[in-house]
């Protein structure tokens, strides 16, 4: 046997279709989310009969298919009929009322946004959308710095369905009562994929993304286990791709344990980089670092000196940092003997 049979040539690759290993990739069939997609479709269906749709808040941990399920439903809706306009907004990128409305204008083909105020933009959007019906998805809705845009969409559009996606179960509790009472959303909670579901999804991505015989079960199954433990499909997709990259860097035709180990070593950095902190979250983290174990009430006072924001906004920032494993809260007594959460950086 030639010693160099397993060495990749300069124009060879282990990847058959690397795009399927990207978390943003939308497969033709979204496995194990059929019932959730049906639920989302059900709240949209009244719009086809020229009636009002319902609003919904979709919650659950990151990496379990919330956004993908919504995008699937929108795709099927668009293929079925052109009676309903679909709008998708990522509120991480568009985090103010003005930015959200400009994005909606762009998606509607309305380009005369310069020098217009927020209310003027909303008026133009209403003129267009009130001639039809609309489904508006506000992904990562908890990242909005100004919730007034939610109220405007609910109040000014006639036939619509507002779909909000958030990792935080407590998002509604942070909304102004007036907005909450106008929304009256259903709540759909996504559960993490089971071990068997995780294995099936990653197996499909592996078979589609890599050429045959690149992976053995001995290297693949630890990735399944780590993904199932983390309850986040992004973990598995990252490990598959980085293991392939590590093997290619060695010019190897097969992925070995050493390649998986290299990928696992990069995982912690990947998970933190996939959750980019905004300015206020970074500042909260810095305050807690400087005052480890201080009661959350005292941390808020320090935060308020910098941003002059409400306690509700502060609690939302803390909840996001806890959800993404930057902070932990431990209940203990403050100097007055009252039990309150004390904040620590993980």
Structural overview:
- The chain is an alpha/beta fold and 346 residues long.
- It folds into three domains: 34-189, P-loop containing nucleotide triphosphate hydrolases (Rossmann fold, 3-Layer(aba) Sandwich), CATH 3.40.50.300; 195-273, Helicase, Ruva Protein, domain 3 (Orthogonal Bundle); 279-345, Arc Repressor Mutant, subunit A.
- The chain is 48% helix and 12% strand.
- The chain contains 14 helices and seven strands.
- A five-stranded parallel beta sheet has the order 2-3-4-1-5, with helices on both faces.
- A hairpin with a 5-residue loop joins strand 6 and strand 7.
- The longest helix is centred in the C-terminal third of the chain and has 17 residues, at 233-249.
- It is globular and about 65 Å long.
- It starts with 33 loop residues before the first helix and ends with a strand.
- The mean pLDDT is 91.
Briefly, what is this?
With 346 residues, the chain is α/β, with parallel strands linked by helices. The chain contains 14 helices and seven strands.
Largest sheet: 5 strands, parallel
Strand content: 5-15%
Oligomer: single chain
CATH topology tier name of the largest domain: Rossmann fold
Number of helices: 14
CATH superfamily of the largest domain: P-loop containing nucleotide triphosphate hydrolases
State the share of residues found in helices, binned by percent: 40-55%
Give the distance, in angstroms, between the N- and C-terminal Cα atoms. Answer: 52 Å
Overall morphology: globular
